[in-house]
Design goal:
It is globular and about 50 Å long. The termini are far apart. The relative contact order is 0.14. Strand 9 and strand 10 form a beta hairpin. The protein folds into 2 domains: 138 residues, Fructose-1,6-Bisphosphatase, Chain A, domain 1 (2-Layer Sandwich); 108 residues, 3-Layer(aba) Sandwich (D-Maltodextrin-Binding Protein, domain 2). Helix content is 32%, strand content 26%. With 264 residues, the chain is an alpha+beta fold. The model has no long low-confidence stretch (mean pLDDT 93).
Length: 264
């Protein structure tokens, strides 16, 4: 970590796990119940569950680490902090809200810890499935077991995931079509769950567009520690000001082949 005064990554991860443990029963208390659903500016649904979970997690973080920044999907950036600077928590209380409000169990809670803008610790929790992936430098786990990406190196053999094909428009849609046409198998939906599957070797390649920092920061430490590669469509590291495009692959060779297509 950039700052020696910060807790060790293992301690940060232990606290992140406590946060996920606190979020899980809240999510399940609202799941498959009548909900008041609103629409955000980007037309994605927001529920009372999102806001309740984020408010609770922010309170726990502020009590434990009052000097840390917080960047959440529903409540934005903690006043007086700069996400790109010192330690900051990036949280998505319910990633996959459309799944959540339609009773599909493929929604998750994402928790990331960044130091100096760099994702150091990441956690993907799937409340309805009781599954969890974690990542910190040199260690990715699915539950208590090590997580490892597949050895797939060629697009022609790749199992491909994306959340919503209709999300690709204009030039992005053309690049997406060229990429997906070369893969061996295609599956859709899943949001953050697909990245957990990639970290555990069950799929090989993911391409997305239109994402936000809270959608991806928790994924980066998990994928990298599991042996995969995750960048934007230019091959650059994902930062808090990335352009919404993500490419994740099981191996460097597979990533390079896919990246060449997405670059046009």
């Amino acid at each position: 970590m950039a700052s020696s005064a910060l807790p060790a990554p293992e301690d940060i991860l232990a606290f992140a796990a406590d946060l996920a443990d606190a979020a899980r029963p809240l999510a399940l208390a609202y799941f498959r119940t009548p909900l008041d659903i609103l629409s955000k500016a980007d037309e994605s649904p927001v529920t009372v569950a999102d806001r309740t979970i984020e408010a609770h997690l922010r309170g726990l973080i502020e009590a434990r680490f009052p000097d840390h920044g917080i960047f959440g999907e529903e409540m934005g950036v903690k006043a007086g902090t700069t996400p790109e600077g010192g330690p900051v928590w990036v949280i998505d209380p319910i990633d996959g809200t459309k799944s959540f409000v339609t009773g599909l169990p493929l929604f998750g809670t994402l928790i990331a810890f960044l130091d100096g803008g760099v994702p150091v610790v990441g956690l993907i929790d799937m409340p309805a499935l009781g599954e969890r992936w974690t990542g910190l430098p040199g260690q990715a786990r699915f539950g208590e077991a090590p997580a490892r990406t597949s050895s797939c190196r060629r697009l022609a053999e790749a199992r491909f995931f994306t959340t919503a094909p209709e999300g690709f428009t204009g030039a992005d849609a053309a690049r997406y079509q060229r990429l997906v046409a070369r893969t061996a198998l295609r599956r859709y939906g899943g949001d953050c769950y697909a990245y957990g599957l990639l970290a555990s070797g069950h799929c090989d390649l993911i391409a997305e567009t239109g994402l936000q920092p809270y959608d991806v920061m928790a994924l980066v430490p998990v994928i990298r520690a599991a042996g995969g590669v995750i960048t934007d469509w230019n091959g650059e590291d994902l930062t808090l000001d990335f352009d919404g495009r993500v490419l994740a692959a099981a191996t460097p060779d597979l990533h390079a082949e896919a990246l060449a297509i997405l670059r046009g």
